[in-house]
């Protein structure tokens, strides 16, 4: 059998030799004491990229989302998000379990912002009657909606609304880098449309670990305390921050190759793709995943009738072409 083409997720990338060298060479210290120079460098750099005051390194994107959202949503308050948002579907209820918040959702085919729906859902604080809306969360790019990009104009309109309504915007930017490369919109422009963000180094950017909370100095000071409280205070973690810095230097612009590969795959199976994720509607997702796996093409079922394939650093165009042939045949 030919080599396996693993398109289950862009989390599957392994650190490159150059990334490992950067990790080996990293200056380290105890980051709980604030003494790891490489972590500090990464946090300052990422805060600057998004035009926010500060950032905080976390082991996972889920932890970054929980920390970020809890800076703007309190116990018994709600966050509004799209119904397939990662915070609603894929964090195992962490926001309810740790923060004690509730969620209500709007639904759009492509995961986009539906401002009229948000305005209709929005609940101002009226005292002891209704759950007040404290924040709107937007996922950019949107994972389960097929890596769709949220247009900057929509983000700006949402920000304007929340400023007047007295709520905050959280951006789950696990793949904000893909949105940036696909549109040319600067990371700082995305940053300006948010109060707080979570961004991942371990997806398309190819680092083995790491995400960051990005926001105001107050939000980050508070998140630092909660990160420790949740058991996420790490020590000589500069070896991981070095992987992140390497990824920022070398793995952002190349995301365009992943997007081209995803477009090639989408084209072959009659689907569409905005960035590095292709989702296809099929009669039986589990059956397709099993049949593809028999032929060395690994994809995932993210719903009973939804198959997802994700392109990344560790699959080249030739491998994606082979996967496209197999999937096109199976879906025919
Ligand atoms: C992967 C992902 C996260 C974070 O996931 P972890 O596995 O906890 O790092 C957050 N949001 C989105 C949209 C994601 O795709």
UniProtKB/TrEMBL annotation:
Q: Entry's InterPro entries?
A: ArAA_b-elim_lyase/Thr_aldolase, Low_specificity_L-TA-like, PyrdxlP-dep_Trfase, PyrdxlP-dep_Trfase_major, PyrdxlP-dep_Trfase_small
GO cellular component: a single term = cytosol
Q: Which cofactor does it need?
A: pyridoxal 5'-phosphate
Gene Ontology molecular functions? L-allo-threonine aldolase activity
- EC assignment: the record states 4.1.2.5
Q: Which residues carry this modification: N6-(pyridoxal phosphate)lysine?
A: 203
Question: Could you say which enzyme class this protein belongs to?
Answer: lyase
Which of UniProt's keywords are assigned here? Lyase, Pyridoxal phosphate
Taxonomy, superkingdom:
Bacteria
Domain (Aromatic amino acid beta-eliminating lyase/threonine aldolase) ranges: 6-289
- Protein name per Swiss-Prot or TrEMBL: Threonine aldolase
């Amino acid at each position: 059998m030919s080599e396996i083409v693993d398109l289950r997720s862009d989390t599957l990338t392994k650190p490159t030799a150059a990334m490992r060298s950067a990790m080996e060479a990293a200056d380290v210290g105890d980051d709980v004491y604030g003494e790891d120079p490489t972590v500090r460098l990464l946090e300052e750099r990422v805060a600057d990229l998004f035009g926010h005051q500060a950032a905080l390194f976390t082991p996972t994107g889920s932890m970054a989302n929980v920390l970020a959202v809890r800076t703007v949503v309190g116990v018994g308050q709600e966050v509004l998000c799209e119904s397939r948002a990662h915070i609603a579907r894929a964090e195992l209820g962490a926001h309810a379990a740790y923060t004690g918040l509730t969620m209500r959702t709007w639904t759009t085919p492509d995961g986009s912002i539906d401002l009229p729906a948000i305005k209709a859902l929005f609940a101002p604080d009226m005292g002891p009657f209704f759950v007040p809306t404290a924040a709107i969360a937007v996922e950019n790019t949107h994972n389960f909606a097929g890596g769709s990009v949220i247009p900057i104009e929509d983000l700006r309109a949402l920000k304007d609304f929340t400023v007047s309504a007295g709520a905050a915007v959280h951006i789950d930017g696990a793949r904000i880098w893909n949105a940036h490369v696909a549109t040319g919109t600067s990371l700082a422009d995305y940053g300006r449309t948010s109060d707080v963000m979570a961004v991942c180094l371990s997806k398309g950017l190819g680092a083995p670990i790491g995400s960051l909370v990005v926001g105001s100095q107050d939000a980050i000071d508070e998140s630092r305390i909660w990160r420790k409280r949740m058991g996420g205070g790490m020590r000589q973690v500069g070896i991981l921050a070095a992987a992140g810095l390497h990824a920022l230097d070398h793995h952002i612009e190349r995301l365009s190759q992943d997007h081209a590969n995803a477009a090639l795959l989408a084209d072959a199976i009659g689907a569409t793709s905005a960035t590095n994720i292709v989702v296809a509607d099929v009669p039986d997702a589990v059956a397709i995943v099993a049949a593809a796996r028999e032929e060395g093409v690994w994809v995932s079922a993210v719903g009973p009738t939804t198959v997802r394939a994700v392109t990344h650093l560790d699959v080249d165009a030739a491998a994606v072409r082979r996967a496209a042939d197999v999937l096109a045949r199976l879906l025919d």
